[in-house]
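Record 1 of the preview.
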Amino acid sequence: MRTTSDGLNIHCGIVDELHAHKTRDVWEVLETATGARLQSLIFAITTAGFNKEGICYEQRDYAIKLLKNFDNPDPLSPKDDSYFALIYTLDEGDDPFDEANWPKANPGLGVCKRWDDMRRLAKKAKEQVAARVGFFTKHLNIWVQGEKAWMDMSRWEKCRDTWDDSTTASWSMWLGVDLSNKIDISAAVKVWLAPNGDVYARSRFWIPEGRLEACTKQQAELYRKWNQAGYLEFTDGDVIDHAVIKEETIEWARGESLNEFAYDPWSATQFALSVAAEGIPIVEVPQTVKNLSEAMKEVEAKIYAGRFHHDGNPVMTWMMSNVTVKPDKNENIFPNKATPENKIDGPVAMFIAMSRLLVNGGGEVDFLSTIDPDEDLLLL
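->
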């Protein structure tokens, strides 16, 4: 009895829902198995999915490159006459809730799919964060990440911006920090409140270089790429050095109008004491629904209103796409992740900072009423 897929000699391979494949193993087996055939075919049929680092998104990127260069006379442009691709999806910038755009992703709309069903699903997706992922991936072929993804990443991308440090130097700033458990990514995010009420955010990340050996090959390669580009900083050894992060974050905030240095107290007592010893106003923000729900909602509202600006750090973008939510009966939300590999430290640090911005009257939500000074604030 065959116990492996290796060694096949096939004429045709059909892969259904390629986005659901967690590894590229099956795809590689099929490509190898058709090598001896003169007219072999591999079919892949799929909707959009969640994993932008996987085989399906890789094939999508390749297909788009071929389509964009189909009429390009440059002999060095990507060409592959053996590869046929057809992608039904919305164009960049299209409103996913505009009915006029739906036929782009649904050529059979009105024939094999009812308009009423699309309207019902769209209404639900518009009103419920957790329902958007299914509508976007299954009915519009828009890629997201996280099975109950919180953020519409197309809107996040629209908020990418650049600005000089001198622009924000005089604005009120809150610094949020989410320290790792010694062996993972630590994050710090600066959040500014502009005079016009817009919010600006810039992020930094650290990971012990020695831990890359414990990561998957794919993850380690991604981390090294980000490090080489200056987006993810390596610290020496196998465990994170909180002293290094303390010194670098304090220096990072120097010259700013820092209101508060906010942090998650889990495993961070010594870190907090050392920061406070520098004369910096520091406040404890435990990761609770009470502390983070309104902060998340405020960030989401600012993003949807086009009043949020971020520096485009790809580590932060990846982590934002990993954030999942499951609203409770009171419509409170809390940042979660589908798997341990889907890191969300950057968004958590941002929400911590944002929660303090709201407490200080920087948002449009009546957040003060949700805070118990005796339980939620720790001044050192």
